[in-house]
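Project outcomes to date are best conveyed with an example. Our students and postdoctoral researchers have been running inverse folding experiments weekly, and each run begins with a structure described purely in C-alpha coordinates. The record below, which covers 113 residues, was selected by the lab manager from last quarter's runs and is presented without edits.
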Protein backbone atom coordinates (compact mmCIF):
# COMPACT_ATOMS: atom_id res chain seq x y z
CA UNK A 1 0.00 0.00 0.00
CA UNK A 2 2.82 2.42 0.87
CA UNK A 3 4.58 1.89 -2.43
CA UNK A 4 1.33 2.59 -4.28
CA UNK A 5 0.93 5.83 -2.28
CA UNK A 6 4.51 6.80 -3.14
CA UNK A 7 3.80 6.18 -6.82
CA UNK A 8 0.58 8.18 -6.68
CA UNK A 9 2.31 11.11 -4.98
CA UNK A 10 5.20 10.99 -7.45
CA UNK A 11 2.84 10.92 -10.41
CA UNK A 12 0.70 13.73 -9.02
CA UNK A 13 3.63 16.06 -8.40
CA UNK A 14 5.21 15.07 -11.68
CA UNK A 15 2.08 16.04 -13.57
CA UNK A 16 1.50 19.18 -11.53
CA UNK A 17 5.06 20.53 -11.43
CA UNK A 18 7.02 18.48 -13.97
CA UNK A 19 9.49 17.35 -11.31
CA UNK A 20 9.82 13.82 -12.70
CA UNK A 21 8.69 12.23 -9.47
CA UNK A 22 12.18 11.56 -8.11
CA UNK A 23 12.08 14.53 -5.76
CA UNK A 24 9.07 12.91 -4.10
CA UNK A 25 9.79 9.24 -4.67
CA UNK A 26 13.39 8.97 -3.43
CA UNK A 27 12.82 10.50 0.03
CA UNK A 28 9.64 8.47 0.55
CA UNK A 29 11.27 5.20 -0.51
CA UNK A 30 14.07 5.89 1.96
CA UNK A 31 11.89 7.11 4.84
CA UNK A 32 8.80 4.90 4.48
CA UNK A 33 10.25 1.68 3.09
CA UNK A 34 13.84 1.76 4.35
CA UNK A 35 15.45 1.65 0.91
CA UNK A 36 19.09 2.67 0.69
CA UNK A 37 19.82 5.84 -1.29
CA UNK A 38 21.11 3.78 -4.22
CA UNK A 39 18.10 1.45 -4.22
CA UNK A 40 15.69 4.38 -4.00
CA UNK A 41 17.43 6.23 -6.82
CA UNK A 42 17.53 3.19 -9.09
CA UNK A 43 13.90 2.33 -8.38
CA UNK A 44 12.88 5.94 -8.97
CA UNK A 45 14.74 6.10 -12.29
CA UNK A 46 12.98 2.95 -13.49
CA UNK A 47 9.58 4.23 -12.41
CA UNK A 48 10.19 7.62 -14.02
CA UNK A 49 10.26 5.92 -17.43
CA UNK A 50 6.56 5.19 -16.99
CA UNK A 51 5.76 8.49 -15.30
CA UNK A 52 7.52 10.54 -17.98
CA UNK A 53 5.92 8.62 -20.84
CA UNK A 54 2.46 9.12 -19.39
CA UNK A 55 3.06 12.78 -18.61
CA UNK A 56 4.51 13.46 -22.06
CA UNK A 57 1.59 11.75 -23.79
CA UNK A 58 -0.98 13.71 -21.81
CA UNK A 59 1.00 16.94 -22.22
CA UNK A 60 1.05 16.32 -25.98
CA UNK A 61 -2.73 15.94 -26.01
CA UNK A 62 -2.93 19.43 -24.51
CA UNK A 63 -0.43 20.75 -27.06
CA UNK A 64 2.23 21.46 -24.44
CA UNK A 65 5.08 19.36 -25.86
CA UNK A 66 7.86 20.65 -28.11
CA UNK A 67 9.35 17.38 -29.46
CA UNK A 68 12.50 18.87 -31.02
CA UNK A 69 13.37 20.82 -27.89
CA UNK A 70 12.66 17.71 -25.81
CA UNK A 71 15.16 15.75 -27.88
CA UNK A 72 17.73 18.53 -27.62
CA UNK A 73 17.35 18.56 -23.84
CA UNK A 74 16.95 14.81 -23.46
CA UNK A 75 19.92 13.54 -25.46
CA UNK A 76 22.61 15.21 -23.35
CA UNK A 77 20.58 14.40 -20.23
CA UNK A 78 21.21 10.71 -20.94
CA UNK A 79 24.93 11.42 -20.78
CA UNK A 80 24.36 13.26 -17.51
CA UNK A 81 22.48 10.27 -16.09
CA UNK A 82 25.34 7.96 -17.02
CA UNK A 83 27.90 10.26 -15.38
CA UNK A 84 25.75 10.92 -12.33
CA UNK A 85 25.03 7.24 -11.77
CA UNK A 86 28.71 6.36 -12.09
CA UNK A 87 29.59 9.06 -9.54
CA UNK A 88 26.81 7.98 -7.19
CA UNK A 89 28.26 4.45 -7.05
CA UNK A 90 31.61 5.82 -5.90
CA UNK A 91 30.43 8.32 -3.28
CA UNK A 92 29.28 7.26 0.21
CA UNK A 93 25.50 7.05 0.50
CA UNK A 94 25.40 9.62 3.33
CA UNK A 95 27.08 12.15 1.03
CA UNK A 96 24.53 11.42 -1.70
CA UNK A 97 21.66 11.78 0.80
CA UNK A 98 23.06 15.07 2.12
CA UNK A 99 23.61 16.46 -1.39
CA UNK A 100 20.08 15.52 -2.40
CA UNK A 101 18.64 17.15 0.73
CA UNK A 102 20.63 20.34 0.05
CA UNK A 103 19.40 20.36 -3.55
CA UNK A 104 15.77 20.08 -2.41
CA UNK A 105 16.13 22.81 0.22
CA UNK A 106 17.91 25.21 -2.14
CA UNK A 107 15.33 24.52 -4.86
CA UNK A 108 12.51 25.21 -2.42
CA UNK A 109 14.08 28.49 -1.30
CA UNK A 110 14.67 29.65 -4.87
CA UNK A 111 11.11 28.78 -5.87
CA UNK A 112 9.68 30.76 -2.95
CA UNK A 113 11.95 33.76 -3.57
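After processing, the design step wrote out the following sequence:
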Amino acid sequence: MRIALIGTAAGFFSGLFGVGGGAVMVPLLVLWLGYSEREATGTSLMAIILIAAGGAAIGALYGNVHPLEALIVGAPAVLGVIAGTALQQRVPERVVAFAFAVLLVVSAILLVV
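Residues 2-112 form one domain. The mean pLDDT is 90. The training component of this project remains on track.
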